[in-house]
Structures are given as structure tokens and as C-alpha cells.
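Molecular record:
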Amino acid sequence: MQVLCDGLDLSDAVLKVSKAIASKTTNPILEGIKLVAEDNELTLLATDLELSIEKKIRAEVKEEGETVVPGRFFSEFVKKLTNEKIELSLNEKNGLKIKYVDSEGFIQCYTTEEYPSFKTLNTNDYFGITKKDFKNLINKAIFSVAIDDSRPILKGCLLEIGKDIVKSVTSDGYRLSLVREVVSFSNIETSCIVPDKSLREISKLLDDSDEIVNVYVQKNFLMVDLKDTKVITRLLEGDFLNYSQIINSSSCDTVITVNKSQLEDSLERASLLSKIGQNNLVKFDIKEDNLCLTSNSEIGNIKEKINIVLEGKDLVIAFNARYFLEAFRAVENEFVKINFSSPTNPCTITPIDGDKEEFLYLILPVRMIN
């Protein structure tokens, strides 16, 4: 193998695929990045057997070939060479010479025979969505995914794909996020559960453009095709929460409309004391046209008042402030509705326009001790 490529292109490609390198493994080959030089392209591949990323860059291929380089070292090395032209050449003993300007480095590589093959998916079943909307679909729900191992299925995000709409749903048992986006095209109606790690890495590869990205789904796998970059992830197996039943389980006796930024700022201030008390509890006292937030700790208390529009009954209820703040950071709307049923049942945060159901956030209250 002998190939000449741009240092910035190589560094960018290594950065992208290195996210799929196995961090803890008994198989050293999974710590490597596979390089394949052919057809005036250099293809880089990495996998931990759950997540696989492939990236192609333009290159002058003088001699075709392939090898597997130690991933961490190669990544650290090439990111120092972004301003250079780099020549990669492989000798008969599987040693890779990296030549740049008047200098060179040398890496002993792994053999490609032991490296897992890149999964090939059926490209018949897919949906198309803009990069911006797909990024929103991920980022506006992923923060409420479970982080502990007690319920492994909740460490993933449920994608429900229809002819016109795709939904993302996450829950950690204390809150639930539901986000909807319109698809540009879909020839499938299915659902799948994508690991949290995989979706976070996919999100990093997406920009805020209206360019269409195709997402392919088949049994046990999902692939995102970004033209010169492909990401394949293994899906989680099992049954997700029956979220529709949870959302529709109670009627709303108290509904408030509130300026999202005002409530967010007040919660930030009120939560300063609740963090000191290590419970993050903030009490919501809803009465007439006011929402009063209070938090207490051994060093003092904070009381914040916000103007609201109230429909229904007065209510006193308490929440973990962090759950509200994380939901609000995902919301771009100026005003939101918060729907309550009782001091012991969850509330939901929705858009004020009921016809636009782009998001719903459900949060369980904290029981107050009198």
C-alpha cells in the first residue's frame, strides 16, 4: 500500500471514526483503525462490534492495499499533521511508514485478517430526513435516557418511524421525552431502539442544514448514510415502555401558560439552594395568575414569583429542578404549557399550540414532607 493524502482530511476522518474504537476490550484488534487504499480513495473504518463508522477521503493511491493501525496512537499522531501532505506506505512486514515534509514516523500494524468485516445492510427499507431535523430528533430527547444498568432497554432511544413522522422517545424512569419530526420520505413503518452512545455520535456528525440524510433500518441494525461517512449501530432488543399509556393515564385539572425563559431563569436561581441541600427540590405554588417557586437549605431560602395564565385549579407540587431545566434547554419556544393533574402525578410540558405536537416532556413530582 502506498497513498498520498491531505493531512487535514486524514485528521478529520480519524477523529470521526475513532469514536467507534473499543475502549475496554480483550481483543486488541478492536482498538485499531482499518485503512483501505483503492480507487483513489482512502477508507477508514473502526468498530467496537456495537457501533461501526466508515469514512472515505480523496487520496492519490499509488499502490492499493490495507492494514489496521493502532487507533489511539495513530489518532494522536496525525492530528499534529493537519497542515502537511502525508504519504502512507506499507512494507512487506506490515509496518506503516508515515512520511511528511522531510520527516517520517513508523508504526507496526495489525493484520487485516482478524479485523471484523463492515456490516452490509439492505438499502431497500429507509426513511429520509433533513440533517437539522434528525439532529433535533436526537438532541431534544437524548438527555433523559437512563444511565444506570437496572433497566438496560432504557439506555436506548425508541424510534417510531411512520410514513410522514418519526418519533424519538427516551425515559430514565423519572421523566420521559417525546419528540416528533417530519420525514422527507419513508417506505417503512417500524420501530427500533438505538443505543444512547450510537445516537450521540451520530448527532455529532450532523449539521444544521436542510440536506437529506438516509436512515436504513433492518432487523438488529440501523445505518445512517452521510455520503462519504456511514454509521452502523446494533439495535437493542426488548420491549420499551408503553409510553402512550403513561402520557394518557391522567386528565389535566391545572394548566399554566408561562414564558419559558423566565421560568428557566427562576428555576436556575431557586435550584442554587436546593443543590446545597442535595435534593434539588423546588416547590411550585400555583395560585391565580402567579407561580411561586421556593427552595430551602440550611443556609437560607429563595422565593421567585412569575406571572402565568392559569386554567383550572390552584396547586402545590414539587419537582427535581434539574429535570425541568434539561427539558427547557431543549425547547426553543418562547411560551410553553405545563399540564398538571395532582401533587402526586406527573406533569407534561407541551407547546402552547395544541396542533403542533413537536415535543412532550413528562416529569414525575417529588413527594413533599410536611
User: Anything to note?
Assistant: The radius of gyration is 25 Å. The CA atoms of residues 153 and 240 lie 6 Å apart.
